[in-house]
Design goal:
Helix content is 68%, strand content 13%. By secondary structure, the chain is an alpha+beta fold. It has a three-stranded antiparallel β-sheet. The protein has a three-stranded mixed β-sheet with strand order 2-6-3, with no helix packed on it. Strand 4 and strand 5 form a beta hairpin.
C-alpha cells in the first residue's frame, strides 16, 4: 500500500515536472516569438527610416539639381536679354549714323544745286518783256519751275526775308538801306535768297536792313 502511494506521489511529481517543463518550453517559444516580432518591428522601423533618409536625400539631390538647372536657365536668359539689348542699341546707333551720313550728303548736294537755282533766277529776271514768249525763255521758266518743285519735295524751302524783322538765325545782313516802306530793323531788300532744309538753315539770306 505504501508503495502504491509512493508511486502515485512519484507520478504526480513527474507530471508536475513535465508540466513545468512544457510551460517553460512554451514560455521560451513565446519569448522567442516575441523577440522575433520585436526584431522584425525594429528591422522594419530601421528599413523605413533608411528609406525615408534615402527618399529625403534623393529629394534634396533632385531639388539641388533643379535649383542649379534653374540658375543656369536664368543665367542664359539674362545673357540673351543683354545680347538683344546690345544688338538693339547697335541697330539704333547704326540707323542714327546712316541718317546723319544721309543728311550730310543731302546737304552737300543741295548746297551745290543752289547756285544753279540762283543762275536760273538771274536769267529769268533778265528776260525782256518782248522775249517772254520766246521758246528758250519759256523752256527756262519751265525747267526752273520743275527744279523748285523737286526741291520742295526734298523739304527745301526759301527763307522769308523782305518785310520780315531781321533775324540773325536766318538772315545775313551785308548792308544797311534807308526805307520809307519798312521800319528800322526790318529787311528791305534780299540780295541772295536763303533756304531751309527741313528744320535747319541750308543757306542764310543775304539782305539789306533798315537802320
Amino acid at each position: 500500500m505504501a508503495n502504491k502511494k509512493k508511486n502515485a506521489k512519484s507520478k504526480t511529481e513527474n507530471k508536475n515536472i513535465n508540466e513545468e517543463a512544457v510551460k517553460e518550453e512554451l514560455n521560451k517559444e513565446v519569448a522567442s516569438e516575441k523577440e522575433e516580432e520585436v526584431k522584425e518591428e525594429v528591422k522594419a522601423e530601421d528599413n523605413a527610416a533608411t528609406e525615408a533618409e534615402e527618399t529625403s536625400a534623393s529629394e534634396d539631390a533632385a531639388e539641388s539639381k533643379k535649383t542649379k538647372e534653374q540658375e543656369k536657365i536664368e543665367e542664359l536668359e539674362d545673357r540673351v536679354k543683354r545680347q538683344l539689348a546690345e544688338f538693339e542699341n547697335f541697330r539704333k546707333r547704326t540707323d542714327k549714323e546712316k541718317e546723319q551720313m544721309f543728311e550730310t550728303g543731302a546737304r552737300s548736294v543741295l548746297e551745290k544745286i543752289l547756285p544753279v537755282v540762283d543762275n536760273f533766277e538771274r536769267g529769268i529776271a533778265n528776260i525782256k518783256p518782248e522775249d517772254e514768249e520766246d521758246p528758250h525763255a519759256a523752256g527756262m521758266k519751265m525747267i526752273y519751275k520743275q527744279l523748285m518743285t523737286e526741291l520742295e519735295k526734298l523739304e527745301v524751302k526759301p527763307i522769308e526775308a523782305v518785310g520780315c524783322e531781321f533775324n540773325p538765325d536766318f538772315h545775313n545782313a551785308i548792308m544797311q538801306e534807308a526805307s520809307d516802306e519798312y521800319e528800322s530793323g526790318f529787311v528791305s531788300k534780299e540780295l541772295q535768297k536763303g533756304y531751309m532744309y527741313r528744320d535747319t538753315v541750308l543757306r542764310h539770306s543775304m539782305v539789306a536792313v533798315v537802320p
